[in-house]
Amino acid sequence: MAKIFYDKDADLNELSGIIAAVIGYGNQGRAHALNMRDSGVNVIVGARKEGKGYAQAIKDGFEPLSIKEAAATADLLSILLPDEITADIFKNDISPNIDHPISLVFASGFVVHEKLISLPAKSDVLLVAPTSPGRVMRKFFKAGKGVPGLIGVEQDASGHAFPRCLAYAKAIGCTKAGALLTSFTEEAVTNLFSEQAVLCGGVPHLISASFNTLVEAGYQPEIAYIFCLKEVKLIGDLLFEIGLNGMRQSISTTARYGGAKTGNKLINSHVKAKMTEALADIESGKFAKEYLAEAKNGLKPLQDFMAKEKNSKLAAVEKELAKSLDF
Fold this sequence. Notes:
By secondary structure, the chain is of the alpha/beta class. The protein is built from 16 helices and 8 strands. An 8-stranded mixed β-sheet has the order 1-8-7-6-5-4-2-3, sandwiched between helices. Helix 1 links the parallel strand 2 and strand 3.
């Protein structure tokens, strides 16, 4: 059973008297910075002047510094940059400017697990990974709620890395919902796998394939779109609120029977073997190497895929229905 920590287990005083710098002011970074500031933490922002985040940080009342300046100033450094650029920025702008013991916080285990950066020996290395997009975390925080988070300690140089990790999770709101103890490796592998097998790979491809199957069989694209895509949210909401079994108990007997009968045909031993293969690629580092190599070359296969999807029949139906239906 995973260990779960809540507000009562965390002490914000662990962050008192320190300067916390958020590096990267995108979707995730903005939420971390604003939530921490609202929790009473002294927060600064490090961002590139030419980036959108720099201007947004000013609008939000920060006086952003360069990444080098923020690294040199902070006692705690929260690195919230895209995985593909983190290593270069850490090597060039962050590491040379850390000349004192510091807490390094990551919201993803990727770069540490893949050993893409050299960790300073005198620094704490903490994982605080909210299980939601930043905008959702911010929305929940403002409503007095929180989203679950994953926490862990890779390196404890100070002797109090875990209490500070818990305090950070509390400052951004995760301990309101529960912070689960994990490791950088477990977070990195399970997160990548869930994205590829379910959330961003399996489900979208299943939606597209089911939509095309109905349209090619002569059914109206608009009807296929509503049933195969829009209704996913309804099931997703049930899964989020009451779990897999609860969802099955909440749908019609016809849907429950049909799902049980056909689901096992679709997700068969062949698909499970492909999942195992995908997991092995992640665990071995093969996926990371391929991704980082493609990122250096502009991610052309991804751009081609996105362009194809943008021009698909499903996308065209979506655009037209958006003009006619209010949902």
